[in-house]
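Input sequence (476 aa), recorded before submission:
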Amino acid sequence: MTSPRARLVLLVCLALLPSGCLVGPDYVKPEPEAPDAWHMELTRGLASGEADFQTWWTVFEDPVLTGVVERALRGNLDLRAAVARVSEFRATVGVAKGSRVPQVDGVGAAQHQRTSDNVTQDPTTGESVALGTNDFFTLGMDATWELDVWGRVRRTVEFAGARYQAAIEDYRDVLVTLLADTASTYTEARTLQQRLVYAEKNAELQRQSVQLTRDRRAAGLVGDLDVRQAELNLARTESTLPALEEAVAVSIHRLGVLTGALPSTLYAEVGPFAEIPRPPAQVVLGLPMEILRQRPDIRSAERNLAARTARIGVNTAELYPRFGLSGRFTLDATSASDLFSWGSRAFGIGPTLTWNLFNGGRVRSEIRRAEAQTDRALADYESAVLRGYEEVENALVGFVREQERAEALERSVFAAAESVRLVEELYRLGLTDFQNVLVTQRILFEEEDKLASSRGQVTQNLIGVYRAVGGGWATP
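Predicted structure, token format:
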């Protein structure tokens, strides 16, 4: 028969085994299906190759945009909150790892106590109790150590580590979204400014037409109808200006908040008119499989799946007995002067065992819940992968097709401008009525407004491509 000391050594050796007994499933990273190439034909400024999306906003070669993005990276409050969340989960990993080593607590007490005159015997030991008052002093430490026989602690560390890694990916996802939102809002402001410029230009052209009709009426060449129609056309165009000015201001306010500043902070930088950021001549895209490596939301979903898998092991370990070691060393005395003498020492050490023999099925229900959560995490991961491919494909189609629309609108604007020039000349010569002037001016205004919106949408769709592929941070 082995001695108690030998059994104690056996327990320690079992706990220190490199692999031990890890209950619960071991995590295996899923390998989702990925297409070999994008469905959208790589034409119209798209090319395949080694893609680098780390600082994608610089491809627009707009120094104001670059400056605004840099301010957002420094000051955005959502980004700051995501950093704090990463720190929170990093600390959680430290808490979990702390359970792998012995826990030592210092203890100490000093008591002045009086024994009841009516109690002459210790109810526990049956020994006589000294009557009167006495002092008691103790100082020392308690130590406990869970022997991780079934891997409960290791699975807990694994769970916490995966959650921490998921928090890092969530931070990166916030970063990707922030960069895209900042560039998109900046593009929106520039697009609205371009629309405002076109509207003001057309309003000035129509003011000249109003004056022309008034001059012709004064000369007796036309009646009041031409004047009123010209005034109506001008008023309709001028009525669009306040709404566009308001929209520009709202966009600038949004940019200010995105940078973590007051809404009006960026008026000096973004308020003056500037061109809409233009896409580069060629955009290089990687293979579809690369978005599994690049998109933070997919990476976060995969880490959450790993965490949920580890959680099954944590709950499964509760089915088995929990072994441990406990020890205590103290100095006890009834006089403070004797506390630090060698004879005051008291100690104890030995193994412990706790086993939840009956819990009404709670532990097995917890295991089933963890398994269901793992199944859900797997579905969430697969959904994130499909959603990623969908967003990239949609963004590519939008980018290519909107370029085609913008080119058609450029031709339309050119034809409308020539039509206005020709019909105004004919009207001055008295060879056409003013109704034709009204129609062509209105068409020119509408087509220029569409062209500005389309050019802005081309840039917005390219920003959508960069967002969809997870651009804005570098993989390790």
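Checked by second reader. Confidence is low (pLDDT under 50) at residues 15-19.
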